[in-house]
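**User:** Everyone, produce a chain:

**Assistant:**
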Amino acid sequence: MNKVGFLLRVIVPALLAAALPLLAQTSGETYELPKLSVYSIQVANQTPVSTFTMPVTGLQFEPRVDVQARNLAEGQADVAIRGGIFENTGFKLGALALHDPQTGHYFAELPVAPAMLTTPMILTGADNAAGGFNAQVGSVAYGWRPIAARGELSLAAGSDDMHRQGFYQGFVAPGKVVGRTLAADVDLARSQSDGSVPFGDHLFKRIAGRVQLAGKGSQTDLFFGWQEKFFGWPNLYTPFGFNETELLKTELYAFNHREWTSPENYWQVGAYYRRNYDDYEFNRAVPGASNPFIHTTRVRGVAADGRQQLEAWAVAYQAQFLRDSIESTSLTFGPYNTRDYFKVAVVPEFASDTDQGRLTLRAGAAYDDTDRDESAVSPVLEAALRTPAGVRYYAQYAESSQVATYTALKSNPAAGLFRGNQGLGRESSRNLELGVEFAHAGWTVQAAVFHRQDDDLVDWTFRQGVTARTANAVDIDTTGLEVVAIYNTPRYDLILSYAFLEKDADYGSATVDASFYALNFPLHRLTAALVARLGRGFELRLDNEYRAQEKNMLRIIGGDEAVLTSVGLHWLPAAVRGLEISLRVDNLWDENFQEVPAVPAARRQFAGGVTWHW
């Protein structure tokens, strides 16, 4: 990136982010704006340009999450945390650990409307070791949002012949049922586009509904969701120049019951069934030409977790049991096609007041097992001190583990586009971390430095002259720094972050020329998000990300640096109650940076929309 480009793409947005709040402060006008829907408090733009909102939408500019998209993030995106890969990131919904046994590419396939979910929590270190499941680096944890009697209808159109429609409605019964409030909500969404590059088209549909029974200190949710996604993209999964497509059909049925006396004192139980159908075509011009890839996975799970406190003592706990199965035309080389998983974690806590402040000690362990792999016991340790000034210092050590998915274990090890490895065993991680959290002069700041050792992490690698990617185990040491700073006022919200990563990898005897995932990470990543309430019903939402990526021989277009900017302007005219008019632009600078090596970038896209809230 030349100096002029850097000034235009980095300095100008930064100055804009700084100037707009000052303009709002110096004006004598009182700015009143009805709140727009907020699904993620650390990201400015809550809706995408090219399709309807999905849970992954709110993660794209999340400071602690690196979303590596193929086409649009809502099509297929790998969600990585702290330099891990897509299969090191887990997802939780209430008590439930949601899982796809075929591949981590589909962990984020959740047919749930974000309007039904609380703001996601990003679990890392000791929190992930104790509360995550089969995810050795981090987890994205959602809760069920209480239902309100509200609704909205949204319509949008934009570049590349994009058009989308969405409808959400929440109902609350007027009376009580056994002393509790009965409510329900429903979501319908659809989008279609020709794509920002040739053969980058998509057609998405979603239907979701929920019944809720809520009372003082309790909430029960029963959910069903169905989602179908067809999308195409050149080099979607392979670097050989073919126009590839994927058809995904996902069903989710979930139950969750939660009771609490405070956010820190609760218990919850749940159960779910998830079915995912995947039909991947390497060459859309000749369907089935290269070993048909058609898979159906099923997961059934039950879970419980919570935290109970009694004076100075507390205990956090969770238990998860999952059973999966797979039917596949190509993943047939492993010895089994079903697997049972079990995890239990218990972490007692003790708190005591000292002269320096309140000292909290956590010491516990997690136990992971499957009927196909060896088990693992992972310690969880933390010491934290909160000073009288409200500053929290902590030091922690935690271990975690996981097992590989079927694509890595059951692909043909000697032929085909994706080559598996039946010798892959349990992966383990050891994380040492120091951190500080404080609030000062309106700012809320969190900072952490960590060193993580991943052993036998499953990566997908490339060798020159071999037309395939291969699953290989790698030992990696990762050192990192994360800083997130948030400033909120009635007129604007500002979220700034910086992350640094450094890695040292050892693939053992494997011959590796390039890594698609484990060595595809940002050395430096900065994000800046601004929500500015400009008055007269106008609101500006600005997300920026600058990254300097580790070099990769497969990334032959777009370089290793990028500035990605997303801008949204919203207007809620006072004369028409509930009306919202919006204009959004993604990839404002039309960057061609390849987030996944060899996968072409989505180009600049824009959309205008109208939403009616009631």
In short: The first strand starts at residue 66 and ends at 70. The chain has one domain: 3-613. Residues 3-613 form a domain with the Maltoporin; Chain A fold (CATH 2.40.170.20). Confidence is low (pLDDT under 50) at residues 22-33.
